[in-house]
Amino acid sequence: MTVTADLVGFGMTAMSLRAGPTPVQLACQAAAAALADAGIGPGDVDGLLVGSSQGVRPDRLGVAFAAQGGFADLRLLEHVEIKGATTIAMIQRATHAIAAAEASTVVCVFADAPVVAGKGAGSTYAHSGGNTGVRGLERASGLLGSVPTYALLAQRWLHITGSSTDDLCAVATQARTWAMGNPDAVNREPLDADGYAASPMVAEPLRRVDCARPVNGAVAVVLTGRPSTATVRLRIRGTGRHHPVRRRRSGAESWFGGGVRAVDDALTHAGLTRTDLDIAELYDPFSIVTLVLLDEYRLTGDTPAGAFVRAGQIGPGGLLPTNTGGGQLSGFYLQGMTPLAEAITQLRGAGGERQVPGATTALVAGIGGRLDHHAALILERAA
C-alpha cells in the first residue's frame, strides 16, 4: 500500500518590515504554530527539513534548529538550499521520505530576517548572484543583486515577445488588487496605471512596484502519512523539478526555455491537466517573472501571457486567479514559502475577502537564481 503525504499543519509569523527577532526565533514561532495547528507536539515529529536564504550569514537557519526548536530523535534531518525552489524541494523530499517509510511526520520550515537595524533589506540581497571571476566588473557596471539582472531578462523578454511595459503594469496592479484583501500583505495601498507610472525606475524597465519587498518572517508546514485530527487535510498530489543549467554564453538563450518539464511532471504525477487547476501561486520576485512563467508553463492556452494578463485573467474573477495574496510583489517576499502559504490559505477556504470560490486544486511554483531552477507542486484539498 502506497502511503500518501498530507499537509496537516500550517504556521506563519507576522511579516515585518522592521528589524526584530532572529531567523531562529522566527522559525521557532512558525514551527510551534504549525504543530499546534496540526494538533501534535515536537515528540510526534521524526523528520525536520530547514531552508534559508542563500549566502553565508551568521544568523542563517541550519540543522542546529533541531535542538533550538525542541526536536529530538529524528530519522530525517536536512538543510535544503536551491534558492527560490527550496520550499517545493523540501515538500518533495518530505513526501518521498514518508512514502519510503523513512519518516512519518515531517516539519518543513523557512525563516529569514534580511531587514536589520541601520540597513535596508536590499543591501543584504545585493551580495547575491553574480558570476565567479567577474564580480568586480559586475559591481563597476552597477549589477548589484538581482534587480539589474532581472531588468536585463525583462528587456530580453519584451523584445522577443513584442510586448510592452503595459504587461508589467498589468501584473503589478492585479497583484496589488489581491493584496488589498490580504491582511498579511505589506503593500495594500491601491495601485492603478497612473500609480504604476509614477513609481520610481530602479533598473529599466523595472520600477519599484515591479520588485518584491523582502520581510522578516517565517513559515512552517507539517506533513504526515499518519491519521490526524486536522480539520482540513491538503493532499500532495504531484511534484516536479527541472534545472536547465544555463551556460549564459553566446549562441544560446541566456534566460528562457525551461521549467515546463517541472509542471508537466507534477501534473502527470497528479493525474491532472492544466484545466483542472483552480489557482496558480507563482514565485514572483519581479513582475516579469509572472509573465515568463505563465508563458513557459503554458498556463494561458493559446493566448500570449501579456494579453492574458492585460485582460485581467490572473486577477479576481479571471480564468486563472494567480498570486491571490498579492504574491511577493505586494504580499511579502519570503522566498518559496510565499506561494505555498497562499495556496494553503486558499485551499483551506481561509482567504477572507480574497478567497477564490470553490478553489480545491492549486499549482505552486518556485524558481531559483535567474530562472536556473524550477520546482512545481500540485496541492489539492482532500475529500
Can I get a quick summary?
The chain is an alpha/beta fold and 383 residues long. The chain has helices at residues 23-38, 65-68, 86-99, 121-125, 135-140, 147-161, 165-179, 193-198, 260-270, 287-296, 305-310, 327-331, 337-347; strands at residues 6-12, 47-51, 76-80, 105-112, 201-203, 206-207, 217-224, 234-242, 279-282, 361-368, 373-381. It has two domains: 6-115 and 215-224, Peroxisomal Thiolase, Chain A, domain 1 (3-Layer(aba) Sandwich), CATH 3.40.47; 140-213 and 235-382, 3-Layer(aba) Sandwich (Peroxisomal Thiolase, Chain A, domain 1), CATH 3.40.47.
Total beta strands: 11
Largest sheet: 9 strands, mixed
The amount of helix comes to: 25-40%
Shape, please? globular
- The third-level CATH topology of the largest domain is Peroxisomal Thiolase, Chain A, domain 1
Radius of gyration: 20 Å
CATH superfamily of the largest domain: Thiolase/Chalcone synthase
What is the terminal-to-terminal distance? 19 Å
Q: Judging by the overall fold, what is the CATH architecture of the largest domain?
A: 3-Layer(aba) Sandwich
Strand order of the largest sheet: 3-2-4-7-1-8-11-10-9
Protein name: Thiolase
Domain Thiolase C-terminal: 260-381
Pfam family, one: Thiolase_C_1
InterPro entries: Thiolase-like, Thiolase_C_2
